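We modelled the chain as a single entity of 193 amino acids. Its sequence is:
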Amino acid sequence: MSKRLMSKNSQNELSKPKKHWSMGLVESMKDADLIYKDSDRIVVIRDKYPKAKIHFLVLPKENITSIYKLTTKDVALLQEFGEILKMIQIEHKNHHLNAGFHAVPSMQRLHMHIISKDMVSPCLKTKVHWNSFTTALFKPYNDVLEELKKYGSIKEVANEEYKTLKSAPLKCNQCSYVPKNIPQLKEHLLTHL
């Protein structure tokens, strides 16, 4: 089709630069339907693809791309993340909540996950999803805060360790059950509810 035959709207759509999916959190931070809490420095959103019954993301309004960009000046920001975590834990006191950061995040904006231990969700589909929350690929909030206070930065996970952890065998996060696959694991997780 020649440009002359294209409508102005079509031409405008084609000329807009496509945003990479990894930048999706920045757009989600502006979505009133996803925002759970908001402060001067932080936005808490509901995860669009939750991996458990409760799954929030805590993000700074400042453009910090990942935990590996944090410095000593960001200790107060992370402490504010902890204050938000305590509030959410009180609001959801009937659920065991874990809080932490992915060692190798796929999304481009620092974000802390607050996620219930149940891990029951139709969005939990792959071994990588599971292992990103149940192995050392999930860096607990308190560990990250203490490392930042002590060293002024967060040490990146080695590529070989990342590969090993993401392909680690499945294992229930609440007992010793070892399923053969994700469908078996998901069926088993229902027994813990």
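As a brief sanity check on the tokenised model: The chain has one domain: 20-192. The domain at 20-192 is CATH 3.30.428.10 (HIT family, subunit A).
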